[in-house]
Fold each of these.
Amino acid sequence: MSAGAPAGAAGTARPGIVGARVQRREDPRLLTGRGSYTDDRKAAGAVHVAFCRSDRAHARIAGIDAAQARQAPGVLGVFTAEDIAAVARPIRATSNMPDYRATEFAPLARGKVRHVGEPVAAVVAGDRYLAEDAAALVAVDYDPLPDITDPEEALADRVLLHEDAGTNLIAAREFARGDVDGAMTGAALVVEDRFRIRRKTPAAIENRCYLAEYDAGRQALTLHGSTQVPGLLRDALAEIFDLPGHRLRVVAPDVGGGFGAKASLYPEEVVVCALAMRLGRPVKWTGDRMEDLTATSQAFDEIVRAKLALDADGRMVGLEADVIGDIGAYSIYPWTASLEPVQVVSFLPGPYRIAAYRGRVRAVATSKTPTGPYRGVGRPVSTFVMERLVDMAARRLALDPAEIRARNLVRDEEFPYKAGSGIVWDRAGFQDCLRMALDRFGYAERRAEQAAARGDGRSVGIGIASYAELTGIGSRISAAPGMPINTGTERATIEIDSTGAVTAAFGIASHGQGLETTLAQIVAEELGVRVEDVDIVHGDSAAVAHSTGTYASRSIVLAGGAATLSARSLREQVVKAASHILEAAETDIEMRDGVVSVAGTDASITLRELARAFYTEMRRIPKEARESLDLSASATYDPFFGTTTAATHIAEVEIDPQTFGVAVRRYVVAEDCGRVVNPMIVDGQVHGGVAQGIGAALLEEVVHDDSGQILTGSFVDYVVPSAAEIPDIEAVHLDTESPSTLGGYRGMGEGGTIGAPAAVANAVADALSGLDIQINELPVTPERLFRLIRNTEGNEGEPRHGF
Amino acid sequence: MERTSIALTVNGVRHERKVEPRRLLSDFLREDLGLTGTHVGCEHGVCGACTVLLDGDSARSCLTFAVQCDGASVRTVEGLGEIGALHPLQESFRRHHALQCGFCTPGMLMTALDLLAKYPLATDEEIRAGLSGNLCRCTGYANIVAAVREAAAARGDDRP
Amino acid sequence: MKPPAFEYVAAESVEEATARLAEYGDDARPIAGGQSLVPMMNFRLVSPAVLVDIRRIAPPDAIGEADGHVRIGALTRHRALETSPLIRDRFPVLAAAMTHVAHLAIRNRGTIGGSLCHADPAAELPAMAVLLDARIHVARRNGERIVEAGAFFEGALWTALEDGEIVTRIDFPLLPPGTGWGFREFARRHGDFALAGAAATVTGSAGRAAEVRIALFGVGETPVRAAAAEALLTGTGFEPDAVAAAIDALRNAVDPDDDLHASADYRRHLAGILAGRALGDAWARAGGGAA
Ligand SMILES: Cc1cc2nc3c(=O)[nH]c(=O)nc-3n(C[C@H](O)[C@H](O)[C@H](O)COP(=O)(O)OP(=O)(O)OC[C@H]3O[C@@H](n4cnc5c(N)ncnc54)[C@H](O)[C@@H]3O)c2cc1C
Ligand code: FES
Ligand code: FES
């Protein structure tokens, strides 16, 4: 990171484009219905795919009879595994992590189906209505196999999901530091429990959608799709179809939310590409909600046994955890199935000082939808577990939950701090966030009000959750364990064209984060132009030579860094060109708001004039000088390690003591997300993340029946929170610069979802602290509370008096 | 399947088309008329992304057949403001950062327009209840509530 | 999720609608607001060969009073019930129930006839019909009949209607003066179908409950009247013991199912809690029996 000197050192007098509440550039088109999402794109002669999907959780395919479907009106063809295998090379999510077993990626099921919703056959017809009619006519003959739905039972390997793996244990890993056994035996207090978080699905409001077009003349394939990772997909598809990158382009136009669900390679993407080449016509698949809820990657499905040891002063001395991750049927490309469960053990020690840690994780295949990245990846689970343990310990030690955290959060002078799992935290406001959150929440007064409410028979609870996460990670650390692709760099190219317009091209793919605005802010500030002068190109694999995309709270750190580097070098070029044109020393050239001037004089030219002088009026700059200049600059930024983001959340809930309905009344987040590019956008990210976390804590759950059928196949049954279930969320920011990234930015896209399940769970536990029950399973639905409370009352009768 | 002729007005423009009876209004608007501002997120009435005004009242275009709209007047998000001349409600959404990915936004706007026409929206609770039939996965709703609150206050004396 | 193909007929009169329905037999279905039928078609759970659109067979939103009844046309939309001054005055319990039905965009289209005929066990309007002893007017080709609400709902999504029959009007007999009401339901998300709900009316007389009605929904195949509980409370002054006995009786009488959102036990529990609250509200609104 040559130019990557800590930004804090690089002068603080900033013109203030970065840090301003700049209105979003993307809004006018999205507000007026003039956005362009994949399904909005029309391609002449396009045909539509509907998939015949497995209605079994685990079965051998004895035969597929597509004769009737082929005869159905408007049908162009019905395709199965062999048709795809003929043109697509196999691909597997590999990893150099020991004890990991990659599973085969078959775009259409081959031999067996392993989850309900798995695509078995692709039916192509003139429109989606006809394709669906015909898909219903495909008759698949299944030989049932025993289901593998319980992850703990699956570990016994009595039935194998992937015979060639020889086991259902797809990945395993252990972390250990310090003398955990000694810490446990010597501790004044050990708290422990078995925690369970139930499977979630990201449920972006735009369902997945892909449109593949093949140009037979150029032999070039273009895939438009609702994806967060166009560059990553381009590279994967290049391998699968053996095409060079310049004949393969993946474009993410406007994308209606992703949250991780659109960050992996999907069977449907491969199928539409294969069929577009085979049929020589544009092929589109527009997924529907049922397909989304059964065939888009799911997440947060872990069982965690954990133990925390403390001394008599409430200082943490040891932590031990055993994690079983239910990864579903396949190891997702490229992240692998270890992504989520390994993160759970890696992040379990949280932002605390704990000398001894041992964590074990086992990722188990089951006959359910594959899991993949979802906002927070693993950390919503690790934070839920750790923060519950912390509150359980506080209660046993009669310490205030705020106090026990203050005693154990890593202090400023202890950074960089190496956690028991090997994660190194760089300086971030762990303690400051706790203090700020308590302050903003009005903690002391609220506790008094809570006591008064209890006196009136009301059940009010306050829950705190503190966490830290690694964001903007560079090439030193893989985004997923042992993954053979580079997720640690991003590239930018900024160009001034012959009209003087500035275009900055990136490989990241904004899908709600407002990166067209924030990256323009960074470019504008570094270059010396106005925000509206900069056009941001993104979401297009053709825009830069290499990129993976937008996920893992990386885009502002990585693409922002690349923007900074390339804007700085472009500015040097502009200054050189201007010194020729304005006949002044380079050191006297200034550029502001797109006007280049000579300091202390009224000599100035606009960027447009400068561009004309450079590209068109060939006598303005001497040939030799011109040839060594370029009004274009590219740079790749690698934060190498990345940085730390930290936060404390505080939630207040009230529980109806008779119906067990839980209402979240107040919510405060104090966050250290480094230098804030646009506070309006940052707050929006926090709000959205917290809302997803509240959903995860109280409402959302993918439910299977005993035979592996998904019962939550609609938005009626998979309950995403509405405006009525989410309170106003107050966010406060520390606004310090990260010492480890160019620009001082830290990633912050996921944090809301990381802290909220824990804070809400703690608040619910606090509200019910008069009862002898444990909140160790999420979502904590009214039904679960009812059962918990009835069981403590020790009878099968009604908990008629509430509590 | 036999097609039926229908004539309807969309954003003030009259259209005559032949449609298959099963064609959903959402698909008719998006595919047949090219008005892709109306989005589809579930096709079972829950997400609200497809909400349009049908004869002045908000309605789910995914739960309405185009044939049922013969003679009707439909307003979609394209019938509000334009880039450079946003409708005040759109302005308010922009000012309050009430959209992120923008996918739910057209449905939110059309719903909010109808709520503003029909309800006092005197409290946040009422606004939140009114918006509860429109799911947004990005914003956490607070900014949408703020945008609608401001629009409600700006209605002046013609409020219901 | 696109609906299967069908033939569409827009009927202009009750006669035409019933004639067409009779002609096509069980291949045909009426469609009113479409707010329950179209989701089922989009999921391909039902695939009628013919849809007979009945929206134009009668003027929309017909709500009037005659002969001691409030008469509501089957095509009256939820939104009209929600806002009707007559309903608010005569049946405030029904007006209150409407605020729990779905969302504005759905209330703008959904009709009372559609809601009753769809017969979702957790829907509010069927429960109101049962609570208020509604009389459901049914037409078929060359004939008419009246079905009492108590006999109309036969099972989940199952009514006493026969092929070719449509509901044309629902009559709600007026309540005696001094009747208090209560309506409570519990849903996980605003506007969703309730996990359970209860509605009650209490007509007071000299400190006693002269008439008590309790309807429960979401706790069985159909909305039900809690007859035993009603009997236990009639004539009482709503003393705590009397109420507790009624709640016990009502919990014993319901037979909810387990499903994904709630167990039978929890639903039974909720039924008691919500009925208790609805009864309390109704008793208070009836003047606590003071009248
Ligand atoms: C997201 C969502 C949430 C909802 N939430 C609720 C809720 O909380 N509570 C609630 O009660 N409802 C709810 N509903 C259902 C809504 O109230 C429906 O509008 C209503 O149940 C059906 O009325 P409709 O006119 O739309 O009927 P349609 O959908 O047109 O028809 C429903 C059924 O009744 C038949 N039918 C319709 N009219 C007649 C008639 N006059 N005679 C004979 N048969 C007829 C049809 O053939 C069909 O079988 C919800 C719907 C949605 C989409
Ligand atoms: S698409 Fe119509 S409500 Fe979701
Ligand atoms: S802004 Fe993305 S769903 Fe609402």
Amino acid sequence: MADLAAHAVASPRPGRSFRAGLLWVVPPLLVLLVLFFYPLSLIVREALAPEGEGASLLHIETVLRSREFVSGLYHTVVIAGSATAGCLVLGFVLSLVIAFIPFPGAPIAGRLIDMIIALPTFLMTLAFTFIYGSAGLLNGLLVDAFHLEQPPVDFLYSQWGVILAEITVFTPFVMRPLLAAFSTIEPAQLEVASSLGARPFRVIRQIILPASLPALLAGGSLCLLLTVNEFGIVLFIGAKDVITLPMLVYAKAIQEFDYTSACVIAVVNVVLSLGLYGLYRAIISHFGGGNAGRV
Amino acid sequence: MVDITAQEIERCAPLDGVRTASRTSGSRIGFEDVSVAYGGLTVLKSLTLTVHPGEIVALIGPSGSGKTTALRVVAGFVRPSSGRIMIGDRDVTDLAPYDRQIGMVVQNYALFPHMRVEDNVAFGLQAQGAPRDVIRQRVPECLAMVGMSAYGKRYPRELSGGQQQRVAIARALAPKPQVLLLDEPLSALDTQIRRAMIDEIAKLHHDLPDLTVLYVTHDQTEALTLANHIGIMRDGEMQAFGEAQALFRHPPTRFAAEFLGRANLLSVGGLTAAGPGEARVRFGGAELLARNPHNLPEGRDCLLCVRPHHMRFAGEGAVANALTGVVQSVQWQGDVHNITLTAEGESLRMTCVPMAVPPALGDQLRVCFDPSEVTLVPEDAPRG
Ligand SMILES: Nc1ncnc2c1ncn2[C@@H]1O[C@H](COP(=O)(O)OP(=O)(O)O)[C@@H](O)[C@H]1O
Ligand SMILES: [Mg+2]
């Protein structure tokens, strides 16, 4: 709302440019409508009133009460929550090191982060299976070294494997806004704090952390959004019992041809995502976006 | 001399009384042959300097001359490549900044933006583990000291520059440091507020006579008003050091004379001794009498330092140290008239009380100055 108002104020000739503006806005809106909202509306309609059946909410209740759905929702929330928490902690620590500990590779590290953001998410997962998979490097070494029958390391094929892979892939999304926020902290503030007797840990807690709170919130909610919807990583890890909502949609629609259930679950997933996206936008606009950076 | 007494007091004090004893007697700041290099470049060259307990020493010099570096080496943000830093009789060269117990105020205030004024002031006390009731008593005390009692609940962004700098000073003084470092604390403020703040810092130091202050500035008014001693820095070296008035009246080098108070420097020659501490020199056709505090030898070419406000109009009769010049420019600045003359091919500035009828451009003007107020200064050695 606030920035809408700001735009309205900033716009130089609101009366004249309104019609011209409309011309620019309508075609992309139409494209969006055809390509995005129409299919979405089909999904919603299928979820609410399945084809061939009358409008009844009974099937929705059945889906939402099913074991699969509850377990899928649980896994989705736990994985997204843990992965986001992990990204925040790891991202904060790594950003601190890159921003405040002078070492020759710091600028390269910054660019590397951008590169990781650009990579497809399953790539890291593939690398993970090479390293930690049952036929991977680590297990191979351990089996050879200790003459074992079974590969000893199998955390990868569990919820923890998914969480670890998501932390690795999504941490850069936290680091980008964090590094932007850190670069706005006046070095003199940190120096004055330490001359007042504050040890590094207190400086981090009382000066750096509050200054980077908007970035942490923005990065965290973005992470949450991405992990709630993550499909590729979960699929690639292929852990048997780890079924998240996107996986469930896939299973219902593609493997079981149960489109109605798939659409119900998809709608829940969309609502969850939109809620998180709303949170993300709210945080960005509340803090003016300056500190939060953009990803 | 004074710091030796201070050390003796500290040595005699019982162990648990050391801090009180040293606080009541103040601590010196000592640079002992300190050099600082960034990469291969030496930006502070063998600085040796003592700021005696309770004294204000100003380091003044053009931008890039190493003033901030000197201050940061005391605070512990830069390690000297050689030499030692002493605070009181502690060698702090290897101490981390947070163990040095120093107050620091910087040009852009560096207040913590997300903390209220009172929390900014309490920060140092908390960091140093002061008990709650001490903090609760000390914070209002410090805010009162800088006249900011009414602003404790505000955030820094809700304050003007001058107010922010007061808070920064209160924050630095709250943990009762023995040593205060100020790096161009007033340069971000406009002239009027700066004048007022100079007075307030002077008053503050009057109220805290044991506080040892190192004050970095490029503004000579601040230095002359506040400092007991002034060090003039240039290219990482201390060019001149002395008691503020002496340094102003008898600058030891051309650079010191120019930097501290924009002196007129006339090239003179044929120096001959004339009475104790005085000498006669030739300036074109004129013979001038001046003080020779640096005992420049006879026959030496040197500079005659005349402050613009020491020049007066000479009447018709015979006067000592009279020169005739041609008026080049006349400027009225409210409380003074600035006049530029040329005499013997050199330009001379004079300031005088505003005149109803100022001299016109091109007029011949006869001016003079008192021999006791002009000083002979050696020409700087060629720099290599
Ligand atoms: N962190 C740094 N790295 C490299 N050179 C520096 C650094 N800080 C200061 N310098 C150099 O040291 C010299 C002195 O700087 P400084 O002490 O800030 O001067 P001043 O405060 O008198 O303006 C300058 O030439 C400056 O470029
Ligand atoms: Mg400086």
